[in-house]
Amino acid sequence: MSAIDVRGLTVRYRGARAPAVDGMDFTVERGEVFGLLGPSGAGKSTVHRVLTRRIRRFGGTVSVLGAPVGRGRDRDFFERIGVGFELPAHLPALTARENLAVFAGLHRGPTEDPGTLLDLLDLTDAADRRTADFSKGMLVRLNLARALVNRPELLLVDEPTSGLDPVRAEHVRQILRDRARRGSTVVVTTHDMLTAERVCDRIAFVVDGRVVAVDSPRRLRLAHGRPGVVVEFRRNGHLERAELPMDTLAEPLGITGSHVETVHSREATLDDVFARVTGRRIGREP
After folding, report:
1. Poorest-confidence range of 98-102, 120-124, 182-186, 240-244?
2. Is 210 helix (H, G, I), strand (E, B) or coil?
3. What distance in Å separates the CA atoms of residue 255 and residue 244, rounded to the nearest whole number?
4. What mean pLDDT is predicted for residues 248-271?
5. From CA 98, how far away is CA 93, in angstroms rounded?
6. Which residues have a Cβ under 8 Å from the Cβ of 227 and sit 6 or more positions away?
7. How many CB atoms neighbour CB 59 within 10 A?
8. Closest to 173 in 3D by CA, of 183, 184, 186
9. Element at 161 (helix H, strand E)
């Protein structure tokens, strides 16, 4: 049984001219890292709210961890999931350690030691500082620690690398992959191509509330990309560059009489593929 099964999901906010989510279909397998990738306003966060039962009025059917969403209140559901919102949720008057202890106390089952989580997220030096004094990046990392406190079977995170420097962002990506290796299912909503590429087993391209493509990052690149070769050569003392598609390599390169210095392949990036499939670039208006 899939960890998440979404069929015909439609959400329309009161007063909106168009639905935020418009007939969306996708499944997430257990133990998978699944990404919802799209620009701001595409409907990713709305899907997140449906999956976490913050939105209960919607069209279609949604099942999470084997139970339909929107029917009754199941306390055990919240024992089994961990949620990290893009906007951090914390108690500013308390320290990082106290915050994690408070959230751990809300759960009936086993929880992680706050010190262990703070060490994992590189927050040990700030463990006893009030979170009101934390930077955005520190709050984002604390937010992930809070989402992991109950050892969730399903982890849902929204923009988990927002505000982080490259080193810490990569560390967070490794943590998400490690959770999947341990058997958790992870759903990432993001517009960060690098996170989608390095973390997700499969990704869904989301535009205007619809899923327009779903597959692994590699298969999407192969199916929709235009791979080629980049050649750098020096002619008349000047370094020049030529890009050629793979299917023309057997043809003359047109650079005879030159000293070729480098040749390397150029695969399509995930951003290239997204633009080709959807007609948009992440973060840009249509």
Report:
1. 240-244
2. strand
3. 12
4. 56
5. 10
6. 245, 246, 265, 266, 267, 268
7. 13
8. 186
9. none
What is the per-residue pLDDT across 176-219, written as a single tens digit (0 to 9) for each? 999 999 999 999 998 888 899 999 999 999 999 999 999 999 88
**Arithmetic mean of pLDDT, 38-42:** 87
171, 153, 83, 136 alpha-carbon torsion, rounded to 10°: -20
pLDDT tens digits, one per residue of 103-142: 999 999 999 999 999 999 999 999 999 999 999 999 999 9
Q: How far is CA 111 from CA 53, 104, 131, 156, 239, in A?
A: 22, 6, 21, 17, 59
SS3 content of the chain, % helix, strand, coil (to 5): 30, 30, 40
What is the distance between the alpha carbons of residues 220 and 213, in angstroms, rounded to a whole number?
Answer: 8
User: Quick one: CA dihedral 5, 87, 161, 83, positive or negative?
Assistant: negative
- Rounded to whole angstroms, how far apart are CA atoms 269 and 106? 43
Global confidence as pTM: 0.82
Helix (H) / strand (E) element for 33: namely strand 33-37
Find the DSSP H helices in the chain. Answer: 44-51, 75-80, 96-104, 114-120, 136-148, 166-181, 193-199, 217-224, 270-278
Q: Parallel, antiparallel, or unpaired for β 185-190 and 154-158? A: parallel
Total residue count of the chain as it appears in this document:
286
End-to-end Cα distance, the chain:
38
Token pair of 246, please? 């793979």
Spatial CA neighbour of 48 closest among 59, 64, 32: 64
pLDDT, tens digit, 9 for 90 and up, residues 215-233: 999 888 877 766 667 778 8
- pLDDT value for 250: 43
Do 153 and 162 touch, CB atoms closer than 8 A? no
